[in-house]
Amino acid sequence: MKQPRLLIFFSTFFLFGLLIFRAIFPALILTSVIFLASVVFEIVWYYKDSAPFLILIKPAVNFFVSASLALSCYIFLYLPVEFLLTEVLIKFAKIPQLVGTAVLVILAVGFSLVDWKKRLIKRSSWSLLFLFCVVSGLVYLVYRNEKLQREYLPKIFHVSPNWAIQRQLVKIEGLNFGHSFQKGTVVIGQEKMIIVTWSDNFILAEQPVPAGFAVSQLKVIKGNGVISNGIPFEIRNPDSLKN
Predict the structure, then answer these.
(1) Cα 238 to chain center, whole Å?
(2) Is the pLDDT of residue 235 over 70?
(3) Which terminus of the chain is less hemmed in, N or C, by CB atoms within 10 Å?
């Protein structure tokens, strides 16, 4: 790689590091790791036609390529889906680790069936593979940063029933509500419910005399003020139940 292109390449990844870590030192470490990896790549490419490489290293390189592609595709395909389901849409508390392991194994086996010796003949192909792996590493860093920020937020998975009248008890199931000695509040729009039972993953609340009847968002507010996701909840007029 020519010197101007090399300078642009590493400067770009340094800026990516600053964007992700918001600190110079971790960004420098990331750039150094990428630099060392590129040096190893250059050495391997230079000796790719030597006898020791042909005898010993090529099978290892084929394994390395398969493993790298499997891990990179796992990061690009599986981790965003897992993040979407557990942290954005909040459909599950956690996807079983066995599922992720199975996906990774299937990808690894699938890529190992390919003859990468014939596929990656040109140097540009190896450069694209290297760039793909580096970008996947950056994607993982972004994923991990967002995951850590969202992982311990209060989350509501299920509310039963999803409507109430005065003095009706409502069960709220979820995660990270806080312990019983750190009770927060449950709100429907701007109105607070009466807390009967509170634990880290279950709340039993009572609907007080409502100010009005409408469909609003039910949310849990932790003792430290952090707010959960909202669940549509209806406060009904008791007269409507007579019909």
Answers:
(1) 43
(2) yes
(3) C
